[in-house]
Amino acid sequence: MSVELLAPAGDLLRLKVAFDFGADAVFIGGKAFSLRARASNFTISDIAQGVRIAHERGKKLFVTVNIIPHEDNFEGIEAYLTQLNEIGVDAVIVASIAMGRISKRVAPEMEVHISTQVSAANEYALQFYKSLGFDRVVLARECTLEDVRVLVESQIIPIEVFIHGGMCVNVSGRCTLSNHMSLRDANRGGCAQSCRWRYEVTDLYSGEMLSKPDLSFTMSSKDLNATPHLKSLLEMNVASLKIEGRMKSEYYVASVVNAYRHFMDHHEMLDEENQVAQTLVELSKAASRETFDGFYEKLPHSNSILYGVNGAGVNQDFVGVVRKIDLEAQRMWIEVRNVFQVGDTLEVFGPYHENRQWVVQDMRNDENIELPRAYQPMSLVSLPLITPIEIDEFIRKGTL
Amino acid sequence: MKLFVEVNSNDSLQVLLESNASILVIGLKGFSGDRLYSVDFDDLESIIETIHHHHKQVCLLFPYIVLQTQFQEYSSRFTKIANMNIDFIACGDVGLGYFMRLNQTNAKLIYMNETMIANPFDAQAFLETGYDLITPAMDITYDKKLSLAQKMPSQALFQLCGTHLISTSKRPLLSAYYDVIETPNAPKHVKLREHNREQSYFGIEDDQGFHVFHEQLLVLDHPHFLQCDYGYLSSLFVPIEETLHWIHLIKTNEFTLENVAKSTTLSVYRGLEETDKGLEAGT
Question: Searching chain A, which residue's CA lies closest to the CA of residue B124?
Fold first, then answer.
C-alpha cells in the first residue's frame, strides 16, 4: 500500500494546485463546523466541485468538521454530514466523538478520521476510536518516531501523521489561552495565537523578575519540517503524511507538496542524505517561519521556539504563475504576484519538469511596451519563452 | 454531595484526612508532575490504605496524555493499578481510561479532560463507552455549564472552586527560555503576564512539560452545581486552609462567590462569559 500525501487547501484554486503538484488527497474546511475560522472556507457547491476535481484524478477529498462543539453547534450537523456524503466526500475529520457517531449513523460509507485535536498517542486510544467504528486516527504531534512505529505496526487502525506546517506549542486541543485572553475559542476556530505573544516572567513566590526586557518569554513554536525523518516514516508505511496549512498561499501549497512528492517518489532510488538536503532547500523557498523536526527524534527544547520574532514573515520570492504560452511569438505570459525586474534570476517549477533557472532579459506589457519591472499584482507581463514550460507552473526568485 | 479534593503535599494529605472531604485526589510519580501530590508506585497501596482507614475514598488522577512508549514501559504497573482497591481513576488520556476498562478495574472511571467535553452529546457518548463520570470543558460559559449540571447531575463532575489549567505543553518551555537567557537554574513555578494586559497566569514546568493555569479562582456557586452528586476542588496555588474553608462553605450551604472572595488573596470569577468572538466565518 502506498503512503498518501495529504495536503491542505483554503479554496478551489489551492485545491487544484495541491493535486497538480502531487497530493494524493486534500483536506478542506467547510463554512461550518471547521477550525481555521479565518481560512476562506468552502461552500457546499465548492466542496462538490472539489470532489469532482479529486475523483476525476483518482484522488480523495476530506472535509474537516473538527471543532470541539458546544451544544448549539450541533444544529444542522446531520443535514451537513448527509450532504457531504451525497456529494461524494471521502472522509470527514472530527474531534468530537458525538459528531463522529452522527456521521457514521447518517453516512456510514463516508470515512471518519479522528483529528489530532484529540491527541491520540497510544494503542489503547487507537483501540477506543476503532471500537467506535472510526476509520483513521491522526496522531498527536507529540509522538516520537518510535511511538509512531509501534502504533503503525499494531495495525489497529490506519495512522496519519503530520510532516509539515504550523505547530501548536501546546498539546493540540488542550489549549484555551486564546479563550481566556481574547474570548476567542481556540477549539472552535477562533484561535488568537496567544502562545505567540510576549510574556513577562516573575517568580511565583518572591515576585522577582526572571525574564529579560530585551528578550521576552514566549511560547511561539517554530513550524514542523519532518524531512529528516521522512524516509523512516515512509518505511513504516503510515497511511498518510499530512501537510498543515489551510490558510497558506497557493505558492506555499505548490512548493511544499512538490518537495514532498519528489522525495516520496524517489526515496528508494536516491542517497538519503542528499535527498534530505535537497528537500530542505526546496522547502526553505516557501518558508515564512523557521522550522524544526518536531517530537520525532527527541523532546524539543529552545531550538523549537521563536524568541524575539513577531509572527510569521512574508515570503516574497513567489513572483508569478504561467498563464499563457504564445509559441508563434515565442513568449510566455506571467500573472504577477510579487515584484521582479529585468536582470533578476527566476526559477520555474512545476509538477512535470525539473526546476529551470534563467535571467530575465526582456519584459513587456499587453501593449508590447517594454517594462523595467513588474510590480502590479495579478497583472500580466510577457517574457521570452523558455522551454520546457507548462501553463500553471510557478515562477519564483532564483539563486544563479 | 461527595467532594473530590486535590492533595498537593504530604502535609495537606494529613490535614485533608481529618477534613470533610469525601474523596482525596492524588497523582502518580511520572504522570502528574507538580499538579498534585504524586506518590511512588511502590507506596500507592499503603497510601490508599491510609486514606481508606480514614473513611475517605481515593481518586488517582492522570491529567496528561500518555505516549505509547511510556505506556509500554509502565503497562504492567497500569495493570496492577487497574486491580488495586482504588475508588476512582480519572484520566485525561482516553487510551488510559480504555485500558483500565479492558483490565476490568473496579474503580469508577472519570474522563477528566479540561477541553474535550463541551456539550451533552459528547458527555453522553463518553458515558456510553464505559466512563462513569465526565468533567465538562473548563472553557465553556457559566450558562452552558449550568445547563449540563441540570441535564446530568449524577454524571457531570464540575470543578466548583480553585485555579484551573488553561494550557499544557509537553515541551519544557521555561527551561528552554532560561537556557536562551543563560539563567539555567531559575525557578520553575512562575507568573506570566502578557505585556499589554493586566491579567497574570500561573506557570509550572515539571517532568510532564509546561502548564499554564488561570490566576483567578473559579467559583461555581449556583445551587444547580451544588445539587450535583459530585463536586471537585482544585487546591493548587492556595493554602490548605483556604481549601478547608471552601469545604466548610459547601457543607454549610454558604458557598458563594462573595464568601470565597472574602477568604482569599486571589481574585474570583465564575468562568468565561463569552468565547464566541472571532468565530463568524468558522462556525
Answer: A98
Give the cell for residue B34: 507538580
Task: Name the closest residue on chain B to residue A183, using Cα atoms.
Answer: B275
C-alpha cell at B122: 459528547
Q: Is the bond preceding residue A388 a cis peptide, omega within 30 degrees? A: yes
Per the rule left: phi > 0, alpha: psi between -120 and 50, beta: everything else, B158 is: beta
Q: How many CA atoms lie within 13 A of A241 on its CB side?
A: 27
Q: Which helix (H) or strand (E) holds A152?
A: helix A145-153
Q: How many CB atoms lie under 10 A from the CB of residue A100?
A: 27
**Beta-strand runs (E) in A103-158:** 111-114, 136-138
Grid coordinates given for B239: 493554602
Partner-chain contact B275 A194, CB within 8 Å? no
* Cβ within 8 Å of residue A296, ≥6 positions away: A143, A144, A145, A148, A226, A228, A229, A232
- Residue A24 contacts B where some CB pair is shorter than 8 Å: no
CA angle at A130 for the pair A129 and A133, rounded to the nearest 5°? 95
CA nearest to B269, candidates B202, B212, B221: B221
Domains by residue range for chain B, with CATH: 2-164+218-255 (3.20.20.70)
Chain B closest CA to A179's CA: distance in Å? 6
* Cell digits of residue A261: 512528492
Count of C-beta atoms within a 10 Å radius of residue A356: 16
C-alpha cell at A244: 498543515
Q: Nearest to residue A193, comparing CAs of A204, A184, A206?
A: A184
Q: Which of A159, A152, A145 is nearest to A231 (CA)?
A: A145
Predicted structure pTM score: 0.94
Quick one: three-class SS letters along A175-187?
ECHHHHHHCECHH
Strand pairing of A394-397 and A318-326? antiparallel
Q: Return the closest-CA partner of residue A240 out of A291, A350, A164, A132.
A: A164
What pLDDT, on the 0 to 100 scale, is given for residue B282?
Answer: 37
Which of 320-349 (A) contact B at CB < 8 A?
none
Q: How far is the C-alpha of A105 from the C-alpha of A108, rounded, in Å?
A: 6
pLDDT digits (tens, 9 = 90+) for B210-247: 999 999 999 999 999 999 999 999 999 999 999 999 99
Q: Any residues with CB less than 8 A from the CB of A178 and at least 6 apart, and which?
A: A184, A185, A186, A190, A191, A192, A193, A194
pLDDT at residue A158 tops 70: yes
Chain B hits for A42, CB-CB cut-off 8 Å, are none
A288-345 pLDDT tens trace: 799 999 999 999 999 999 998 765 666 778 999 999 999 999 999 999 999 999 999 9
Q: Is B266 on the interface with A (CB under 8 A)?
A: no
Complex confidence, ipTM = 0.95
Identify residue A123 by its one-letter amino acid code.
Answer: E
